[in-house]
Amino acid sequence: MIFHRRGTEITQRLAEIFSLCRSVRPLFLCGEIIILIILLSSLSNAETLTVAPAQSIQTAINAAHAGDTIQVQAGSYNENITLDKTLILEGLNKPVLRGTGKGSTLIVIADNCTIKGFVVEHCGNDLQQEDSGILLRSNRNRVEYNELHDILYGIYLMKSAGNTISHNFIRGRAELESGDRGAGLHLWNSPNNIITDNTITEARDGLYIQSSPGNFISHNRATHLRYGLHFMNSDDNKFEDNIFSNNIAGAAIMYSLRIELRRNAFINNRGFSSFGILFQACDDCVTEENFIINNACGVFMEAVRLSRFTNNVIAENDVAMQIFSSSDNCEFSGNNFVGNLSPLQLVGRETNTKWLKNYWSDYDGYDLDSNGTGDIAHKIQNVFDYLEGNYPRLRLFLNSPAAQALATAERTFPIIKGSTLVDQAPLIKAQQFHSDFAPPEPQRIPQIILAVVSLLSCGIAFAVTIAMSRKGQRT
Length: 475
Known about the structure:
475 residues, alpha/beta, Pectate Lyase C-like, 15-stranded mixed beta sheet, 13-stranded parallel beta sheet, 6 helices
């Protein structure tokens, strides 16, 4: 190992002391000089250690002092390591830290550490022991620009606060069943972290957050997972500009207060009982300017109170909204509802959720006074949608001639009781929202299936007609 003394920083601190002597009043001079001497003392002991292949990173950690930097050259290092003192651990040209296959590959138990520029792989396989690529059990660390492969949990924060986790790529063990994997980023009892610009794929959940309030999570990508975001009992978290796509489910947010979601994308999340965003037992949430596109269910709400959904694009979903009557005093305004097979499934008899000034692609009203809103209210559900909420098996007949006939009958003969939910001032034109990603092409599978069935029916009818005519000619 090679050691480099930081003489230039010592010189700079001495210059600060002399400058202080000339400019600060004598009353405060002693205290300031003492503080600077303490800082100078710590800097005078700070060193840079260089680790080359065939050497041990843990040996360098053991030899280092708090405040040192350890630079690790490119190569492969087969060991588990523990940071038990405040250090900067910096990889040069992406050295590979390959664990022993038992336990966590890298554990941090000292505060204020930095881990940067490594490939981390091959941790253990015990979910109960939290075997991870990187396990943080301390506070105010930085973990950035790392790649994690062949790991059970990716980066696990256990009672770890005030960290910055950024620009990491995390890939789980695709060969395992989804339930046997860990989360890419797992936070437990870990408040006030900044998590930004990470990419997570092929883990169990992208981000699993439990009992961790006050985190800021932005510009992350979570794809090909069970849940892009799995979240509970964590108040006052903010999610901005994240993408959750091609998962079984996009985001499940449960038992939390004051959650804010802005400019996120929930796209192509499909699976059994799947959804773009699920809210359960949440209050005072704000969902603004998100793109909720091509999911089995766009927005699922159960026992949600005093929450608002504003300026979102909710498009090309099988069901735009599924709302339980236990949800109370929520509001949808300024949203674009475009091309959803079913706009709303209401589970229960009624809801006091309000819709006002949204754009509905199936609105057939008019705007005679040209004020931008329709002159007649938009009925959100037809009678078939209303019945479907409480009788899910009716979904088999969605868009069937029988369902269309029932909807037409409701409009023609008001004696058929349906839903009373309306948007009193529907927008005539869709709102324009900017996105940094290209929305997917809308799926046409249902229409294709209907077209095939129709062609087959026509073919069978034609064949039967020909057969009958030939039989008549013979007789």
